[in-house]
Amino acid sequence: MPDRDVDPVAHNRAAWDKYVQEGNEWSTPVSVEEVERARRGEWSIVLIGREPVDRSWLPADLTGKDLLCLASGGGQQGPILAAAGARVTVFDNSPGQLGQDQLVAARDGLDLRTVLGDMRDLSAFGDATFDVVFHPVSNLFVPDLAPVWRECFRVLRPGGTLLAGFLNPDAYLFDHEALDERGELIVVHKLPYSDVTHYSAEERATKFGADAALEYSHTLTAQIGGQLAAGFVLTGFAEAPHHSDASAQYMSGYFATLAVKPG
């Protein structure tokens, strides 16, 4: 039977802490050399897939800008943006992921702080606290998005921007094993999909591993319409192939939006 009562925050916190220990690619801190280049203005960061984010989506000068890296731990984007001059806060559900940011900040003397929590609850921050929210592909790890967009809108200053990346929900149509092992696109799931509604705990353990993070598909209405409903104005859109999925040769794996809180 589906395991609908599982706590996604606690489960995914433990899952990502384990990914850090295993050396997950999204948990590998940037190097000293990358930080030094960022200090010289030579930098790029990833919002979707492995594509560098369009620099025009960020302020031309990050010096003194208050920037929230939302669900963006791992010692990657946050340290680079801090080295580029921003006052960075990294907010993440995983102590292990935040530990990677703390490691780089201490190693390289960066103006960066970390806060632990669920991306749907930013009550640790006051209204109009940030100039930019940078939210790479991560909201697939929570079951509902409306609170995420409402909180992003609240903590941004008027005129502030939200950069959000998210997974193409069509990726969840396909059989996981056939896709990963043989590159075959076999449709088996009806959308919306979630690990907890489509599989029991025993089935998940067999297919993905007992400690794997729980994932949830979200409609484009929830992703894009949810930002509009929260009050944002969309000013940019981009897409990219999935970085490691066989579906990349047929469709975009990721979408990204640039949204502004009206001034």
From TrEMBL:
It holds the Pfam family Methyltransf_11. Transmembrane segments: none annotated. Residues 68-163 form the Methyltransferase type domain. GO terms for molecular function: S-adenosylmethionine-dependent methyltransferase activity. GO terms for biological process: methylation. Keywords: Methyltransferase, Transferase. Coiled coil: none annotated. SUPFAM superfamilies: S-adenosyl-L-methionine-dependent methyltransferases. This is Methyltransferase family protein. It comes from Kribbella kalugense. The lineage of its organism: Bacteria, Bacillati, Actinomycetota, Actinomycetes, Propionibacteriales.
